[in-house]
Amino acid sequence: MAQIPRMRTIHQCAAYFKEEDPECCVGEWCIRQLVNQGKIPFRRSGRRILINLDTLIDYLASGENEAAGQEDEGIKNAPN
To answer: Which H or E run contains 50?
Structure first.
């Protein structure tokens, strides 16, 4: 039997991080940006956006270095 995914709203995900680590800098705005940029999968239930909490934790723990990608974009878009 497959494990039931821990689907949470953006608010609940941010609250989970704050509960686990009160010094955590990952808030609702940060999670919402990840959703809007398509970096984490989500499902809609009416107006609510539901995120698999374990997938979000895995994404944040993967240690992707986005700064390097942004620097490359800046070089490409720099005026000549």
So the answer is: strand 48-52
- Per the CB < 8 A criterion, the answer to whether 78 and 71 are in contact is no
CA distance 9 to 78: 38
Entry pTM: 0.75
Give which of 65, 56, 46, 49 is closest to 16, Cα–Cα.
56
pLDDT tens per residue, the chain (80 residues)? 689 999 999 999 999 999 999 999 999 999 999 999 999 999 999 999 999 999 999 999 997 655 555 554 555 555 55
Question: Cα(39)–Cα(47) distance, rounded to whole angstroms?
Answer: 20
- Cβ(57)–Cβ(31) below 8 Å: no
